[in-house]
Amino acid sequence: MDTSNFYIALYDRETDTFSIPYHIDRKDKFTTFPAGKSLTKYVITNDKPLLVRNKDIEEMTRKGLIERVGTPSKVWMGVPLKVGDKIIGAVAVQSYTDETLYSENDLEIFKFVSDQIALAIEKKMAEEALVESEEKYRTLVEQATDGVIIVQDGVFKFVNTATAKLLGLDTPDELIGKQFIDFITPEFREKVVERHRMTMAGKGTPSIYEIAITDVVGHTIPIELNVGIIKYNERPAAIILVRDISERKKAEEELKKAFAELEHAHRELKKLDTAKTEFLNITSHELRSPLTSILGYAEILSEGLVGPVT
Predict the structure, then answer these.
(1) What angle (nearest 5°) sits at the alpha carbon of residue 30, between those of residues 27 and 32?
(2) List of domains in the chain
(3) pLDDT tens digits, one per residue of 175-206
(4) Which of 97, 110, 159, 230 could form a disulfide with 175 if both were Cys (CB 3.0 to 4.6 A apart)?
């Protein structure tokens, strides 16, 4: 089958245009063209392979079914490109000189070729989507302020920049292949190993918990882990979000200290209140005794029992 004039056209529904990722032609050179009423658009609209010769093209043009695009051809053959149930474009061959160049048998062969091209395009689109997705999420992970790590078989398989910075390292690569447990402070290692074992076994265990790690210069850093399970290189692995909670712990300690001081002040106030009550009781008693005598003398004087008051 002659492919001297061959093109692959991908359809953009939003703009109603075709882009031409692959094109061999002795007359025309297109990278895009409006879909409009072109033969290519006619093929994908009807979802059927099409073989037409010059008189067919002229008749379809006269009826307003199509409009010519580019140099008029003597014979044109096109097949829809389908990925799954979705038509993404078409492939076409044509001749500007020989209208007998293609037959119905060629059309059947071209349908098979179209299927193979569609599979190749689908694979390429999937690869590009995967790369785009990986780039997007890698950017998000690298820009995250929290650490993100992947641990498999107890060793670091992936580490973001925030984790390396937390541990006092310049680059994440310095951690790849190293044992995760080596950075856990001794008092938490048994807890981490047990939690990891239960998580990987699919047993119910809290995914968020607090431990402490040691950086490369020996500083202890309290952290919060949020652990999940993913597949990494077709095998189970733990993906762990690491958050430095040093400031939270500092705030908690300051809050505890403030509460302790408040409780101490409350106890001291109670002591002062008790002392005040005792003082008032004593003072009241001491004042009451002489006042009673004075009031008694005042009553005797008022009744004249001791003679006139001069």
Answers:
(1) 155
(2) 6-140 (3.30.450.40), 145-244 (3.30.450.20)
(3) 999 999 999 999 999 999 888 888 888 777 77
(4) 159
pLDDT in tens, 148-157: 999 999 999 9
Is the pTM for the entire model greater than 0.85?
Answer: no
Give me the residue label for tokens 């003398």: 297
